[in-house]
Each structure stands twice: as structure tokens, then as C-alpha cells.
Design brief:
single chain; 328 residues; Rossmann fold; three-stranded mixed beta sheet; 11 helices
């Protein structure tokens, strides 16, 4: 049977980044013709690790450049647009909230306007986030029907706004769309040390103190999703739309809560078999933060389930880090 991705023309915004690079590699492997637009070059980024530079068309540019984006989408004749371009670093939304909102919201609106006026209407798959639901302290899984809640930073609200704009464009102009809400994604290629797994690996590789600062006391419980499962999720959402499926949002995760302390301890063992005691210096001032998503809709509608266990994913990430990141 012919793979539906064979020869399919795809645009991946933010494709030079962590999640985007894994999606691009999977699309190339499946025979798609891929164009990437990113405001960061390929060199030194996850996409270079994937080794698919020669198999794609790369455009260095910012989606907020309306003329560039309209020209790219109008001439591309894309079957599918995967919109991953965003500033995903939560600390940035505290340090410079205006810039993060501008990137995540205006970038989405500019891209959708380019899609609206393009000669053909592609399927549109949007990278959203579990941050859509705001801060959470209840261990029960969150369904897609839950409304956005209050958030302690501007990242989550920026993703809510982008989703709302997508729904408006979809309904008004007939753009088939799906939003993919992910929990904490980790895996090979992630070098952002503001996040738990890259920070841990940097410290383990350098022999530094295994210290995670004062942002958490180690009790926070989250759902950790391997990046390869994320790539499959995006493609499953697109396949759903290609079959004429309803435009909607899907949660993706493992439906399992794991404390950040437990993840740090498992990483230490995966790195060299040593059971280190991670230092979390935050002081808890209220209920334990915890969040996992209800993923039954993705399972029943898309046939998607997370296939990589946490220990398998951490081992793969350690192996990548040893090979790709120079020791200090």
C-alpha cells in the first residue's frame, strides 16, 4: 500500500528546532517533499543533527515578515502546513512577555493570512501545548473540553490566543485544522538548559553539582512525552484531516505523572549508573503542581498512543548527548 506521505508537499515552520527537526526527519523518511522556514539557521541546531539538510528546502526567515510568508505559502502549493514556529521557552515569557506574545500570536496570524489567500488550501496542523489549560494542581487527567485557566506566565495564554485565531480562520475561510496539545516533551536534540532534561545532562556531563536551583522543590508531577512520539502525533493529526476528519484539538501524552525529582534520579542512573541525589532548592508554598492530559480522543480517533517509555526515552537522550554535545 502506498504511504500517503509519499510525494506530499509539506511546510514545517520552526523546522530547525527541537520538535520540528524530528518531524522533518520523519516526513523525509516517509517520502514527503519538505520545506522548512525558521528564523534560526540549520548550523548547530537539531536539524543538523538529523542529517537531512540536503533532502529539504530551507528558508531562513521570520513568519512575521508578511511579504516573505505570503510569497512562500502562495508559491509552495503545500498539501500540509505544520506550524511549530514559536518561542517555547517559558522563562522568556517572564523576561520579555511582549516578544513572546508577538512571536507566538502575530506569527500564527500572519501565517494563517498567507494560507487564506493562497491558491490552494492546505491542511493546517498547529503545535499547541498543555500550557493551554493554565496552572494545574489536580492529578486527574485534563480533557480537551476543559477551558483555559489562569497561568503564571504568558506562554500559555499566547498558545490559547493562537488557537483561537486558528479556529476563527478555520471556520471563516474553510481551513481544515487540528491543534496538538502536548505535555513536557524531551529527547535527542534539545539543548535548552532552562528545561529539566537538558540541564541535567549538561551537569552530568560536566561533573557539576547536580543542582536544579530554586524554581521547584522536586515535587512537581508532570507527564513527560518522548519527541519521537510527538512527531508521530503531528502526522496522525494531519492524516485525520486528510481523511476528512473534523477540525478539532487533540491532547497527546503518556497519561502518567512523574515527579521532576524522579526524572532527575532516573537520568543519573541512565547516564552512568550512579544514584545521585538531585538538589531542588525551591520552597513549596501551596499544593503540588501536577498536570497530565486525557489522551483517549487521540487514541480512539487517531489511533495514536505513546510508544516510548520514560526509561527508554531517557536512555536514547543520554546516547544522543554523549555523541553530539562536546564534553566540558
Amino acid at each position: 500500500m502506498t504511504d500517503m506521505w509519499q510525494g506530499r508537499t509539506c511546510l514545517v515552520t520552526g523546522g530547525a528546532g527541537f520538535g520540528g527537526s524530528h518531524l522533518v526527519a520523519e516526513l523525509v523518511e516517509r517520502g514527503a517533499r519538505v520545506t522548512v522556514i525558521d528564523r534560526e539557521p540549520i548550523e548547530g541546531k537539531p536539524l543538523e543533527d538529523m542529517g537531512v539538510e540536503d533532502a529539504i528546502t530551507f528558508v531562513l526567515g521570520d513568519l512575521r515578515d508578511g511579504a516573505l510568508t505570503k510569497e512562500l505559502v502562495g508559491a509552495g502549493g503545500f498539501d500540509v502546513v505544520f506550524h511549530l514556529a514559536a518561542d517555547p521557552i517559558v522563562i522568556n515569557s517572564i523576561r520579555d512577555p511582549e516578544a513572546v506574545v508577538d512571536t507566538n500570536v502575530r506569527g500564527t496570524a500572519t501565517l494563517l493570512e498567507a494560507v487564506r489567500i493562497a491558491p490552494n488550501t492546505p491542511l493546517f496542523v498547529n503545535a499547541s501545548s498543555g500550557a493551554y489549560y493554565g496552572d494545574n494542581f489536580d492529578p486527574a487527567p485534563i480533557p480537551e473540553t476543559q477551558e483555559p485557566g489562569p497561568a503564571s506566565n504568558l506562554y500559555g495564554p499566547s498558545k490559547v490566543a493562537a488557537e483561537m485565531i486558528l479556529r476563527g480562520y478555520g471556520k471563516a475561510f474553510g481551513i481544515p485544522h487540528a491543534s496538538c496539545r502536548f505535555m513536557n516533551t524531551y529527547g535527542p536534540g534539545d539543548r535548552h538548559e532552562s528545561r529539566l532534561v537538558p540541564r541535567a545532562l549538561s551537569q552530568l556531563a560536566s561533573g557539576a553539582e547536580y543542582d536544579f536551583g530554586d524554581r521547584d522543590d522536586g515535587s512537581t508531577r508532570l507527564d513527560f512525552l518522548y519527541v519521537g512520539d510527538m512527531a508521530r502525533a503531528y502526522m496522525s493529526a494531519a492524516e485525520h484531516l486528510a481523511r476528512g476528519g473534523e477540525s478539532t484539538a487533540f491532547n497527546f501524552g503518556t497519561a502518567t505523572l512523574t515527579s521532576v525529582r524522579d526524572v532527575a534520579e532516573r537520568l543519573s542512573l541512565a547516564f552512568d549508573g550512579t544514584a545521585r541525589e538531585p538538589q531542588f532548592r525551591g520552597v513549596r508554598t501551596g499544593p503540588v503542581r501536577q498536570k497530565r492530559l486525557e489522551v483517549s480522543r487521540a487514541e480512539s480517533v487517531l489511533g495514536w498512543t505513546a510508544s516510548t517509555s520514560l526509561d527508554e526515552g531517557l536512555a536514547a537522550t543520554v546516547a544522543w548527548h554523549r555523541a553530539a554535545v562536546p564534553a566540558t
